[in-house]
Amino acid sequence: MSTATIGDIDVSYTEAGPQDAVPVVLIHGLAEDGSSWAGTQQALADLHTFAYDLRGHGRSSVGEGDGTLTQLGNDLIAFLEKMTGPAVVVGFSLGGTIALWAAAQRPDLVTGAVVLGTSSVVGRSATGFYAGRIELAGDTSSQEFRDAIRDDTAAALVDGDRLDEITANRLTAIGDGRGYVNAARAMAALNADPLTPSLTNITVHVTVVGAADDTFCPYKAAQIVLGALPDADYIEIPRAGHLMNVDNPDAVTDALRRSITALRSTTTGRKES
Questions:
Q1: Is 158 helix (H, G, I), strand (E, B) or coil?
Q2: Is the full-model pTM beyond 0.70?
Q3: Torsion over CA of 224, 226, 228 and 231, rounded to 10 degrees?
Q4: What positions does the domain AB hydrolase-1 occupy (predicted)?
């Protein structure tokens, strides 16, 4: 694991694969960190992958978080500018929303995107969910918060055999909760200010990946994204909930490999740093 100072934060990331391959940047979801992509980086060992911890998640510092998607998107753009140059960007859930924001702003850097379990707008019930979790995250050591994250994790899985392990990993990624709160505020803001209108500005190809049993981000959310994107396709992962890379990692890896292979021909190469 390496660290780079980018803007006002120190960003922790894991780099894997051959240096001369087209770079692929992996962005995790809320209550996760870059280690959630460890299996993917191993399975895609022939690709040059970067998995970084979002602001305030895992080992990345929180800096002056302002609770906006714009800031998280600019963090990604700064990472691309400093570490990779033009790249294919893969994002899960929150990470997918960040990837779409950046693709709309900088098609010269985001040469293609794959977004998994991703929404461009959230409803009132989701806004209430985020508000409740933000309140509890004032004390991430409390049993009430830990139970809430366990419940959220269970609801995001079809197969709960690894529930305790995955919950523990997520609590570690959340840490003191400041990054979690910052990102949850950014997602909650999509109720009043949806990203959907900006998707029409995306000129690169986007693959939208959904999970058959995802109750957090159901197919309706994918339809909204697909309906706004000028150039997109859809892949569905069977036998998986929202945490599809836990429930069915082989199918996710296959979808990513197929999508990234199709996108790599449009990628212009790696910036030397």
A1: coil
A2: yes
A3: 170
A4: 23-249
Cross-strand partners of 209: 116, 235
Beta partners for 207? 114, 233
Rg, C-alpha atoms of the chain = 17
Name which of 95, 97, 110, 74 is nearest 193 in CA terms. Answer: 97
- Contacts of residue 30, defined as CB under 8 A and 6 or more positions apart, other chains included, come to 93, 94, 180, 183, 184, 187
- The DSSP string of 173-234 is HHTTSHHHHHHHHHHHTTTTS-SGGGGGG--S-EEEEEETT-SSS-HHHHHHHHHH-SSEEE
The yes or no reply on domain 7-264 and CATH 3.40.50.1820 is yes
| Phi, psi torsion values for 81, nearest 5 degrees | -60, -40
- Output the six-digit token pair for 270: 């790696």
How many Å apart are CA 178 and CA 196, to the nearest integer?
27
- The DSSP code for 271 is P
Give the domain ranges of the chain.
Answer: 7-264
Residue 269, pLDDT score: 41
| Cα–Cα distance for residue pair 21/87, rounded to 1 Å | 10
- What are the backbone angles phi and psi of residue 57, rounded to the nearest 5°? -105, 150
What are the backbone angles phi and psi of residue 123, rounded to the nearest 5°?
-85, 180
Per-residue pLDDT tens digits for 29-84: 999 999 999 999 999 999 999 999 999 999 999 999 999 999 999 999 999 999 99
The CA distance from 245 to 16, in Å, is 18
The token pair that represents 52 in the structure block: 């970084």
